[in-house]
């Protein structure tokens, strides 16, 4: 495949990449190799038959340029004595240092990502439609990434702008004299096609090349993306089966003579341990992981040599057999830039394929005990200066940490707080007349942390911190649901598409019930215990229910919530959250973490 310059860029050369042709939205990307890189010698003055290619990978950055706050900013590390300790990690200043250090002494090094680089981002990136994150990834020398579901939060047109550059269509350029240049790396979207043309919306694959060593990368997101993204975000798009798509393009690459292939898949699994250094192949190969990625790995053609995955925010390095029964590496690197994976792919020049039995991989913590990358510090400072007038505004006060994303409990203190804020804001008759509010757990993106993140002081919740908790700015809806539909929605938390991995709605004060996890499916919700303000839910009665627009569209498998009628659109979820903080807290009387006593859990 010939290499042509990226049409949007004018940067110093570093690596050669050839992108699948004929896709106007993606374009082509190429750069020359650094001088002086050589294969391993064979003792006779010539190159050896094999060469080790270093594959560095990470996933689910979600625009976390600064170190994540609270429990979301640490990883679990298994100690030699079997205990597990929490290690602070993450922040793009440290991620850059980790990757640059890892590349030293590895002339054949390629860096890839498993999707969700942007979306659900903290204020520093989200306020500017994630332009800061794309700039940071360019500086990180990212070579390629798959799209994830969150890349579609603002729709395909905005994703194309992140790829190709240009100022935001409504907000324009954020800095005078500076135009956003877009990504230096290709976003791959092999299984996302335009409904009208049937063609992928971005390049389906790319080929990394150096000194005759060629490795193809195919990128896909989970087929179920429309179920977890707002309808506007995926309008006009079709999402296809991950296995069928990867196999299709693996055959195409093979016909082109590209025998070494890596799949970047934004779908993942659940390891048996949360420790990033857990042995996923204990007691046997792949025994330590479950979830969708296992079936995907078992179904993808043996032409693919390794799988870089994501989406579940877990860390694992597993060997899952391919359809031919041969071992194949499947990796994931946690989230928020806290971990990176270093994989060695031994490339055979004669067969042009990876020697699968020689593949080695390990996850590494992005420690905060190392030096910060100065160019990343400059980037963060530059964007923080632009965000400061908004980010530092106090919104309220808390007396202690209020855990949300970092909580492992099904009922989360921050979830209750958010649901209460939504109910209070939408309960007045002229605001919707809501009697109950429901919040999706995946929409809670962080914790509220008592310790100051800047100069605001301990216990102060700033606009930036509140935005990090609820970055989607979903508009609130109030709809009519029958009691039967409300009960059905509660049952859908633990049945249907959510049976294997329950999604427990966070409920406002007044709604109580028992969740019996010793049962299966919908029976886990003990319907006889469901009460609203002490009264049993009447299946025939109509209730006004508040929820964000994502849930009101049936997102996250809650089809019953999508059946609501007489919809009233209210303020954004963030506006209601900030209003509640302001109304219920002062410096002298801060808000305490709410009790978690609405769902009685039986295990």
UniProtKB/TrEMBL annotation:
Keyword list, A-Z: Hydrolase, Nucleotide-binding, Signal
Domain Calcineurin-like phosphoesterase: 58-314
Gene3D superfamilies: 3.60.21.10, 5'-Nucleotidase, C-terminal domain
Gene Ontology BP, a term: nucleotide catabolic process
Annotated region described as Disordered, given as residue ranges: 61-88
InterPro entries, per the entry: 5'-Nucleotdase_C (IPR008334), 5'-Nucleotdase_C_sf (IPR036907), 5_nucleotidase/apyrase (IPR006179), Calcineurin-like_PHP (IPR004843), Metallo-depent_PP-like (IPR029052)
Location of the 5'-Nucleotidase C-terminal domain: 401-562
Gene Ontology MF terms in the entry: 5'-nucleotidase activity; nucleotide binding; UDP-sugar diphosphatase activity
One of the record's GO cellular component terms: outer membrane-bounded periplasmic space
Keyword Manganese: no
Keyword Hydrolase: yes
First and last residue of the signal peptide: 1-31
Top-rank lineage group of the source organism: Bacteria
Matches recorded under PANTHER family: 5'-NUCLEOTIDASE, 5'-NUCLEOTIDASE-RELATED
Similarity comment: family membership: Belongs to the 5'-nucleotidase family.
Protein name: Bifunctional metallophosphatase/5'-nucleotidase
Source organism per UniProt: Streptomyces nitrosporeus
